[in-house]
DNA sequence: TATAAAGTGTAACCAATGTTACTGTGTGCT
DNA sequence: AGCACACAGTAACATTGGTTACACTTTATA
């Protein structure tokens, strides 16, 4: 684990902290689609992403979903953190977008390190800031963009975290993430294809205009 | 200033910290409508709200606005904080919703106190968590509610921060906050009035179903 | 290979919201 | 009083997005 740690977090944390993480953290590897956290869960540990990507979703009372953003390597989930501290329930759902490797840190340490290591403190604050920025971006998309623009942005973001200009996804699953219907997505995808921005195939979309 | 400080933050901070705040903070009183911060501003100090309320807005490229949430007494703006630390620009606009009193803390102190006072650390983390929760609530409203539900929620929130079941506002200004058009708001307000939920008058809306 | 299931394309229709345009009515000012 | 202006009501219409329905194709599986 120490190798992965140094590779992804070595530039952030001093050796003493890296060693502490190595001692108390547990390595975890999950497949695509694995649900790391659900709405209402109580959280006992915080994840540091080593590789892969995790998508963060919001859900309403009726069970309708909405994709908020992706978390990638070198990042953490700041929500976890504040949930841990206040013993609160998770407000969001986290699902592995790709096969993902993480290091789980027990809650107690997290707060202890806040005072002990300046670098940890900065990391946590930076993480909060990044997450807020991404929430704001999500708000921009929903509030200011039309569905076709949101869709194209979604495709590009997804291609980004998958590091591939071809993404494997069904129209139905896109509809879930964007909180709309399959028919609407099919219609808009076809229109994007006609404009030469993508190429459609069963379970596969190639993005041309990245 | 020390009186207001103790009244609003005494239960949170130890005396030593209250004294430090008293020494370095500057008291500020602004009228309704005063813009405390704009998008793109560099921030040099962080506000602690003593009384009143501040509304936080997002804006897109075309200048269209959207209300995110209100900040009230006993609260701070966590965005400010992360902006300060990273020397980044503000992502949001802050406008006094009512006459407002605040204490401004210079950036340097903020980060110094993070290590020095556990209570300050908790306050900051709590504030981040609260702000994220409110952003999520904003997302819920935009993504999952219809315009008439959003409107009624808006009216209730506004009544809350104004501590009054009658709010003074024009249909046009509501339209700005909810990022829609005046005609749509007038139409929906009239429908809410017909349902017996509000009473409409020029520049004034009384909320019955609080 | 037969059959079922999942995925996609598309038409027709509906509902919600946005737009344009015009009317009337208070309010403040001269 | 007379005038200008901000504010509100409302009709008519356009657009976007959501819904229903059905046909067709590919993939999985008995």
From TrEMBL, chains A, B:
One of its GO terms (cellular component) is cytosol. Residues 28-116 form the Cyclic nucleotide-binding domain. Keywords: DNA-binding, Transcription, Transcription regulation. Pfam families: cNMP_binding (PF00027), HTH_Crp_2 (PF13545). InterPro entries: cNMP-bd_dom, cNMP-bd_dom_sf, Env_Response_Regulators, HTH_CRP, RmlC-like_jellyroll, WH-like_DNA-bd_sf, WH_DNA-bd_sf. It comes from the Bacteria. Residues 150-210 form the HTH crp-type domain. One of its GO terms (molecular function) is DNA-binding transcription factor activity. This is Crp/Fnr family transcriptional regulator.
């Amino acid at each position: 684990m120490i190798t992965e740690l140094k590779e992804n977090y070595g530039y952030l944390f001093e050796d003493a902290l890296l060693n502490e993480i190595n001692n108390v953290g547990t390595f975890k590897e999950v497949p695509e689609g694995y649900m790391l956290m659900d709405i209402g869960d109580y959280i006992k540990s915080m994840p540091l992403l080593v590789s892969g990507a995790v998508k963060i979703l919001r859900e309403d009372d009726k069970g309708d979903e909405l994709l908020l953003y992706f978390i990638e390597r070198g990042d953490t989930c700041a929500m976890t953190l504040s949930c841990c501290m206040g013993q609160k329930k998770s407000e969001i759902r986290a699902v592995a977008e790709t096969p993902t490797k993480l290091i789980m840190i027990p809650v107690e340490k997290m707060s202890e390190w806040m005072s002990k290591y300046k670098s940890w403190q900065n990391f946590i604050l930076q993480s909060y800031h990044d997450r807020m920025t991404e929430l704001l971006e999500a708000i921009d998309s929903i509030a200011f963009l039309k569905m076709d623009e949101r869709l194209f942005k979604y495709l590009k973001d997804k291609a980004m975290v998958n590091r591939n200009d071809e993404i494997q996804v069904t129209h139905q699953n896109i509809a879930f993430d964007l909180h709309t219907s399959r028919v609407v997505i099919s219609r808009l995808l076809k229109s994007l294809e006609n404009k030469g921005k993508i190429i459609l195939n069963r379970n596969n979309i190639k993005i041309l205009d990245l």
